[in-house]
Structure prediction request, 176 residues.
Amino acid sequence: MVPGDLVFYSATYYEHLKKKPQIHNMVHVEIYVGPEEQTVGSRWNNGRIQVFDSYKFESKNYYDIKFHFKSLDTWLEGICQSWNPDYPWRDDRKDAWTHGRSVFADEDDEEEESKEEIPKNVFYLGSGNNNSLIKRHMVMRGWRQLPSSFNFSTKFSLKWTQTHPEIDFKGLVEGS
Prediction:
């Protein structure tokens, strides 16, 4: 474990709470900060995040807690996938254009990316304004969707939005 890795907690809810079981019985997650067993998380229903001396604790909501330690290395490398064949992640990114870099890429990588040409047949889709219809037809025609986190990017050929503030007029490039 290195600082930044995750500690997932699987457990069983107490029956009197009548809570729906989660996938893999995952009930909580915290971030390992080290150097020994320290974590940061929000254990109690007060919405406060705290540093804890140990990842181990007793809960009033669940029992039979098991700890699962997971490295962030694959995510930092831009690989976001389920490693459990019984529970593949639902991933709409198959129809999305991505630059293949991690969201944690160095700024130098981002500068190189900004020099890239705008890819052809890439569209950005804002929420509302019958966006599911637009997505279906664009994907049928072989276009790729820009992820929603790129809402102020100019790396698209078409942008479909519902509201005026979603458009970055200063970023529009003439002739593109």
In short: Helices lie at 73-76, 107-114, 131-140.
